[in-house]
Write a structure and sequence with these properties.
By secondary structure, the chain is of the alpha+beta class. The protein has four helices and eight strands. The protein has two domains: 37-158, Sandwich (Immunoglobulin-like), CATH 2.60.40; 161-201, no CATH class. A five-stranded antiparallel beta sheet has the order 4-3-6-7-8, covered by helices on one side. β3 (85-93) and β4 (101-109) form a beta hairpin. The chain starts with 8 loop residues before the first helix and ends in an 11-residue tail after the last helix.
């Protein structure tokens, strides 16, 4: 029976080095791609302005001349990127149930265009929660990555479908507060930690 030739140590080191180089190259490509995506998304500017009477009544969203201007705000979106963005929505809240709802804005904002939307905005709160106002703008880029622009902080966030960090943070809170009881599902349902209203979901 012929013995298997496993090669020499230098050959193995060379193979490992080649594999490592390929993995490093792939990592750099992915990193640069994400950086380019974020650069494009950061070129989508969003801001809130007070509604103006002569402009608001010319818009399709509001057709009642008796409308209270204080109940609305203008949401400006200026796409200075070289590519369009899609599926724009405003996240407005919290409502009486401490929930943020999506207010659909437009299917697409072309590259280099500025668009104005009329969005509802409460000035006074009827309960312990803050008044319901536009908190963020959500949009999708051409590579189907979803981005959320925080209107108050002026920061951009990538929307992640799997919020692993958030889940782990909740588990850590349970364990630190209740110890081993946190692993009892019946106990967890009975003493579920309250969730603060947050558009990040």
């Amino acid at each position: 029976m012929t013995a298997i030739d496993w090669g020499s140590v230098p050959t193995w080191f060379s193979a490992v080095g080649t594999t490592g180089s390929l993995l490093a190259t792939a990592g750099i490509i992915v990193r640069d791609r994400r950086k380019d995506q974020r650069t494009d998304a950061a070129r989508v500017a969003c801001w809130i302005e007070a509604a103006v009477a002569h402009e608001i009544f010319d818009r399709d969203e509001v057709d009642d001349d008796a409308t209270d201007l204080e109940a609305y705000r203008f949401l400006r979106v200026h796409n200075t990127a070289d590519r369009p963005v899609f599926d724009l929505s405003a996240l407005i809240g919290p409502d009486s149930n401490a929930v943020y709802r999506r207010h659909y804005l437009a299917h697409v904002v072309p590259a280099g265009k500025q668009v104005t939307f009329t969005v509802p905005c409460e000035q006074h709160s009827s309960g312990s929660l803050p008044p319901s106002r536009p908190a963020a703008v959500e949009f999708r880029d051409v590579e189907r990555t979803i981005w959320v622009y925080d209107l108050e902080a002026g920061t951009l966030h990538r929307r992640r479908e799997r919020r692993v960090r958030s889940w782990l943070r909740i588990q850590r809170r349970f364990v630190s507060e209740f110890g081993w009881k946190a692993f009892n599902l019946r106990f967890r349902r009975r003493v579920a930690l309250p969730k603060r209203p947050d558009w990040r979901g």
